[in-house]
Amino acid sequence: MVTLIDNSRALRHPEKQKRPDSEVKRKPDWIRVKAPVSKGYAETKNIVKSKGLATVCEEAACPNIGECWDKKHATIMILGDTCTRACAFCNVKTGLPGAIDPHEAENTGKAAAEMGLNHIVITSVDRDDLDDGGAQHFVDVIESIRRQSPGTTIEILTPDFLRKPKEAVEKVIDVKPDVFNHNLETVPRLYLSIRPGARYFHSLRLLEKVKERDPNQFTKSGIMVGLGETKEEVMQVMDDMRSAGIDFLTIGQYLQPTRKHAPVDRFVTPEEFKTYESIARAKGFLMVSASPLTRSSYHADADFAQMKAAREGRRS
């Protein structure tokens, strides 16, 4: 019997190699998706690659990549493809990042224009090695998109800017993205094991600062379920988010990328997701997306339109 060793995976997550393997549970029928093979998928892939851009769709092994890329929806991941954090759930490569690509902002704007996007989502790896955590680069990317694709609305999914000067996040708020998203990811009790490099209340406070500085800017955050959290803990996170003025909540099923990542505690049923959605809407969120395959940028363009309509409806 021959045992194959995946050296690329060892290099991708060096900090996880000493962890014991955990069973990767068989996915239930409601989570299975088709392999991406469409013409639209191939066209999106070619545009992204021709501009030398990274996407969280690929790096995080998103299950929705086939559907989204077929519709020319791609979440661009800026500041490189290597993260300085080592979250137990994440499939993005970890290590010491290289220098920022000086053409990345310009090429992101070109890609948005070439794909004819109505709405674009820009995320990034964590860059704890940079003095401002990459804040100025977010500004540069947003300005490039607005210059080259002025009809495109912009949603950002930022790192937490932990231990960075307050001016870092302020400059990102002040460039006025249409949606400012930062994910809490899980309940406070699980942070030490799932998101050890982050701090729950710091992340919550970051989103609260957005509303304080620009009350009209939409804010968004999401969590994964199936990591061992309780229903009561999820409801408390909802209350914390509403206290911080967050407009849009996403809830999706955690899927284990490899045997070295945090194991799935259980697969949450579609009926449970519907219950979470009903509870969240009752708590006052303008928009809620809760389903097994929900991810931060899944259907982001349509959801943004619904969120704007919901705000207008409340004002009228």
UniProtKB/TrEMBL annotation:
Chief location of this protein within or outside the cell: cytoplasm
Family note: Belongs to the radical SAM superfamily. Lipoyl synthase family.
Region: Disordered, residue numbers: 1-26
Superkingdom of origin: Bacteria
Binding site for [4Fe-4S] cluster 1: 57, 62, 68, 297
This protein's pathway: Protein modification; protein lipoylation via endogenous pathway; protein N(6)-(lipoyl)lysine from octanoyl-[acyl-carrier-protein]: step 2/2
Subcellular location per the Swiss-Prot or TrEMBL entry: Cytoplasm
Record's GO cellular component terms: cytoplasm
Residue span, Radical SAM core domain: 69-286
Sequence ranges of Basic and acidic residues compositional bias: 12-26
Entry keyword set: 4Fe-4S, Cytoplasm, Iron, Iron-sulfur, Metal-binding, S-adenosyl-L-methionine, Transferase
InterPro entries attached to this UniProt entry: Aldolase_TIM, Elp3/MiaA/NifB-like_rSAM, LIAS_N, Lipoyl_synth, rSAM, rSAM_sf
Cofactor: [4Fe-4S] cluster
Gene it is expressed from: lipA
Catalytic activity entry: [[Fe-S] cluster scaffold protein carrying a second [4Fe-4S](2+) cluster] + N(6)-octanoyl-L-lysyl-[protein] + 2 oxidized [2Fe-2S]-[ferredoxin] + 2 S-adenosyl-L-methionine + 4 H(+) = [[Fe-S] cluster scaffold protein] + N(6)-[(R)-dihydrolipoyl]-L-lysyl-[protein] + 4 Fe(3+) + 2 hydrogen sulfide + 2 5'-deoxyadenosine + 2 L-methionine + 2 reduced [2Fe-2S]-[ferredoxin]
Protein name as it appears in the record: Lipoyl synthase
Co-factor binding comment: Binds 2 [4Fe-4S] clusters per subunit. One cluster is coordinated with 3 cysteines and an exchangeable S-adenosyl-L-methionine.
High-level lineage: Bacteria, Pseudomonadati, Pseudomonadota, Alphaproteobacteria, Parvularculales
